[in-house]
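INFO  loader      accepted 1 record
INFO  loader      residues=336
INFO  predictor   begin
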Amino acid sequence: MTIATTINRKEYTGNGANDTFAYTFIIYLDGDLKVYVNSVLQTITTHYTVTNAGEPSGGNVVFEAGFIPAADTSVVLWRDVPKTQSTDYVGGERFSAETHETALDRLTVITQQLQDDMDRCIKLAKTVTDAGSVEMNLSATERATKFFGFDVSGELTVSGAVGTWKDEWETAIAYNAGDMVYDGSNGGDTQSVYYCAESHTSGTWATDLAAEKWIIAIDVETVITDAEAAQAAAAASATLAQKWAVDAGLVEATDYSAKQWASNFAGLIAGGSSKEWAATAEDFAVAGGLFSALHYAAKAAADLVLTNADVVSTNADVVSTNADVVTTNADVVLTG
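INFO  predictor   done
INFO  writer      dumping tokens
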């Protein structure tokens, strides 16, 4: 057969009821499939069974009663074919194309497993040209309780936990990579915080700093400057906000505050204030021959009264006409 997919794992979320989870790739034995629930490896035949081993389209993992994944638990099905070669060719025997193809398929599957592992690793991009050394020759004792990092040359190294606080820097002290100090009266007295880039016994602050044995972590002078600038900017913003809210007169160029637009204090706005456009009395123009909302509302109400009067007058005419008709009919009766 051919291997037309690179899928090597399936990931699901349990719901507390579903006991069957599909895998969509070939495995050769039931044990070629590893099953994890919330990152805990499950045991085949105890927690689950596998169907359709050997089928190119895959099969199912069926959890046993009592081990069905609970709601919101992660379920990972991962193919893990052993990295061994089990096909044995015997000289002089008939060559089996099917056996040979299965061996090639297994190699392809193993390659996909390795690729899956590589895809989940932290690594340098192919375009990085200064990768440096990616090997480390430190013993387990030297690595114990340390963490990976990079030295000043960008090479892999290990050091103690970042944040090992050593208080104020002093001379003639054995510092380890990762130690942290502040620059007090024994050094430049900037109060800034530094971390140790490489293990060393301290000499003078200026010499060690120039040799890049200390890297600044918190530049207190910069922090203070930035804080003062932020404080000044906040104060300026607050002042400007107040101006836009309540100042009388112009705030910028030809624009006024919200209060000025609302009240038109001292009549500074030629076009009228919000209050004037809303409530200036009927028949008094606000600006440019235009009137307030109150004016137009009053006119609309007056028009409605006139219209109703016309309706009443029309109805009276209809009544009068009907009376004339009655009188005419009466005359006809008399004449007859």
